[in-house]
Specification:
EC 6.3.2.30, Dna Ligase, domain 1, alpha/beta, 39 strands, Mur_ligase_C_dom_sf, cyanophycin synthetase activity (L-arginine-adding), about 20% strand
Length: about 950
Amino acid sequence: MSDTDTPTQGTPSPDLKIIETRVYRGPNVWSYDPAIHLVVDLGSLEQFPSNTIPGFTERLLADLPRLDQHHCSRGRKGGFIERLDEGTWLGHIAEHVSLQLQQEAGHDMRRGKTRQVKGHPGTYNITYAYADEAVGLAAGELAVRFVNHLVQPDPEFDFTVELERFIKQAERTAFGPSTQAIVDEAVSRDIPWIRLNKASLVQLGQGVHAKRIRATMTSETGSIAVDVASDKDLTTRLLASAGLPVPRSESIRTVEEAVTVANKLGYPVVCKPLDGNHGRGVCLNLQDAAAVREAFPIAAEQSRRGWVIVENFVTGKDYRCLIINGRMEAIAERVPAHVVGDGVHTVAELVEITNADPRRGVGHEKILTRITVNAAARELVRTQGFELDDVPPEDVMVKLTLTGNMSTGGISIDRTWEAHPENVEIAEEAARMIGLDIAGIDFICPDITQPVRETGGAICEVNAAPGFRMHTNPTIGEPQYIAKPVVDMLFPPGATSRIPIVAVTGTNGKTTTSRMISHVFKGMGRKVGMTSTDGIVIDERLVIRSDASGPKSARMVLQNPRVDFAVFEVARGGILREGLGYERNDIAVVLNVQPDHLGLRGIDTLEQLADVKGVLVEAVPRTGYAVLNADDPLVRKMRRKCSGQVVWFSMAEPGSEVRDYIEGHCRRGGRAVVLERSDLGDMIVVKHGRRSMQLAWTHLLPATFGGRAMMNVQNAMAAAAAAFAAGAPLHDIRQGLRTFNTSYYLSPGRLNEIDVDGRTVIVDYCHNAPAMRMLGDFVDRLGESLNASSELGRPSRIGVIATAGDRRDEDIHELGEVAAQHFDVLVVREDARLRGRKRGELAELIAAGVRQAMEAGARCRQVEIVLDELTAIRHALARSNRGDLVVLCVDQHQTVLTELESVSHLAQAGARSGDEGGDPDFVKPEGADAPEE
């Protein structure tokens, strides 16, 4: 329904509900960036746009007034308000509310889209951007509840309370200011990043180039340096040995020792934990033994090892010097948490007023921390002559803590450009002595603008992983962009942060092409990380055995520190479920778009399937390449989606329309891989501009079975095009293709050939009609070769076939029809996972297709149903003779190959390789003839 249609009359009900939720973690069918996808049902609200619900817009803007800044489709501020006044549907409104809720939580998200599901009135696809996955999902759920509340008020729903709860959740999952500053700097330099846990552990870069940060600790931070900085006593002794100004101190374990040391050093003293942080447990300006006894347990409680330090109390202002990679980058004066009297409000009221500052939050989530009034604060206020209920005179400062830590509610004043050079040199030398790449040097001195050796003062602490927010967001003064030197240290100018990514998709041939590309680059010495339907392979080692063609597997490869080249097989299901899972691919390879997986997840047509696979092409940057099959019309159209350059591959004959187009493309400087035919055979030729370079004869490539397996000829051309685009020299591409074969070691489950007691057995993963056409063409060519060389008469062709249960009935039926054109005998089996089908249903559908083709005169003369995979294979082998061709379309290829090897060994030992009857899952159709002997 459009915004101008007239709705039916009635009373609106709060029917808006979410019926499906997806999280896209990379480019997807809806956007180039990560997005939340909600499928919602409006119910009766389909009949009620916003302008038909009295007071709806007013109530909406009363709770979320900043919605008036949304542009919507009008492209200007206030555009969304115009849409509300004209009348827009509540799914669209939920999208904008989801975005605004995230903005309320500090995530500046502005991109969204709402579209009606075709053929389903009242059902809408809502997509919107997110920064944090959990926050984005929570925003969508709250938006739907809020819109329903606006339609019909729910007395149990308090939007103010719900919004506060939502914001607190966002704060819990958000990066701290230090981590966020580094991540933002990395993003500005096009450095990819991955969040590795729910806290602050982040990977910057990919594969072999990856670095890690946790807050302001980096993968370059030495563990010994951190241990030294955590031991304040050792830190002080090391700094003193370098002649740097430090207070006199000793570490002790008992309260009596603390008093003895304090008496020896002279009062006032400081009592602090040996290995504390954030100022916790630090007690300052202790004037006598009683104060030391009172402070000792406070410091000991915060010491992980039970040691406490007693040192001279150095008077002066508190300065934090930030040293990054040996250089001073920022200095902040830290002022302890305090309030300033106004002659009107009490101390407690002044604290409340100060905490009302929107910049203050809990912990490190905001640029300032709320002041906490605890027992220590009350006592400190009391020592200044006040109680919490007293009204301090105007302009009188009342301290609430003694330490200037931001984490205890202090404020910061930027002093970066005011520090005396000698003080800067002392701070830099202190960081070098401890060995930290990022260090916070705490100075106590009267004035940082004067040499500390002359004015008095000392380094009281050296901090590993110092917080950045006092520098990036000072309360007073200019912000310092200190994330820049951190990223400079991790990725010096000109350093690489990304590894090349080749992504391969298509209905058929993805796995073999991915393996070919990987093999080429392995031969060049690269450490290749590859994902496929068989698992994840890292540098030739299978590390995970499962279907790994989705986005999660891709991220696992990008996190591996050994990988310097990535090849991803990308399946349709993963794109629809989560998107690509990574930001972009340097090379996208699209092999074909054939009728398979239709009818799943809203993909009902080939054009829709092409749009899904085209996401890879859209993810190609300007510097990248799309390797496209020019022989497939749907793949050809994807050239319009590519921001980079297109590399064509084609098996079309010279003089055809496709070849003429490719020739024109190359004359304009483009690239292509084509097939040149001659009496000597077929030659794969690489074209770049006006140059033509012969690559290899197809019959010399082992994977093509002497040029008979045309599907692997095409896969080899696609692999050559991708490798050439990735910068591989021609001789390395040639060597890679010449040494790649379909053995089980290099290509498990893809055209594996094995001799079983004189039978030629081919094991393949073929499971749909288009793949069966290609496999059938190979069977015909191989069968002719076997006929010519056979001394036992005309060999039979026996096939074991199956498909997945989530295919359409017509696709399953077609598989049987196509197979019947190429085999003499077909044994129909089923996978272990039926995907919603009843046992035997799939096999009967395939067999029906075979019978229909047999009635029309197909080659096949017999079809049998044997449901169990291994039983079906044993049955096919038992019904074959020496010299026959047996093709096994398998599901569990490892189990099948183990079985074949066992049978082969038994045959070699003189045992019979099968039993011709009694299979428990065997069903013989009526009228089926026995195979000829």
